[in-house]
Write a structure and sequence with these properties.
Blueprint lengths: L1 H21 L14 H14 L3 H14 L4 H13 L3 H14 L4 H25 L5 H19 L3
């Protein structure tokens, strides 16, 4: 009787084993895997960003990018930090890195364009304070700044 029970158990195990192996792959019902260290770092950085702790987020993103220099999401968020803190040249570099690694990232292209518009506006504003009103370019700077502002407001390119 004991031998018969063991044989039945062995047959049952042999029959069920292939079913177990078949379900351990990428089954849609499978439990989600544990997030990687990189995913956790990104999440912490993004949480800091959303909470307004831009310095913490920036420091975290720099650490991530040291190990993963082609990570477009990190470059994008870094660009946003630089834009929000008025570091427009750095923002341009970060957005350019973003689109280098993710050419179809429409948000990055948009933010890059906005940043360059902001830089142009600043250049026009500073230029107007550096030259005298009798300079032939004084009025041109003002007109260009006004035209740029109108186009941006109306959504023209």
């Amino acid at each position: 009787m004991i031998i018969l029970t063991r044989i039945c158990m062995l047959i049952l195990v042999v029959l069920l084993l292939p079913a177990c192996v078949a379900t351990t792959g990428s089954s849609p019902n499978r439990v989600a895997s544990k997030p990687s260290a990189l995913e956790l770092q990104l999440e912490e950085s993004f949480i800091a960003y959303n909470e307004g702790r831009l310095g913490d987020s920036e420091a975290s993103l720099h650490k991530i990018l040291e190990m993963h220099p082609n990570l477009s999401d990190a470059w994008f968020k870094l660009g946003n930090i630089y834009y929000r803190t008025g570091q427009y040249d750095a923002a341009v570099r970060a957005y350019e890195k973003t689109v280098t690694y993710d050419k179809e990232n429409g948000r990055a292209w948009y933010n890059l364009a906005l940043t360059r518009i902001k830089q142009a506006d600043i250049a026009l504003k500073i230029g107007a304070t550096q030259i005298t009103p009798d300079n032939p370019y004084f009025e041109r700077l003002g007109a260009l700044r006004k035209k740029l502002s109108q186009r941006v407001s109306s959504g023209e390119s």
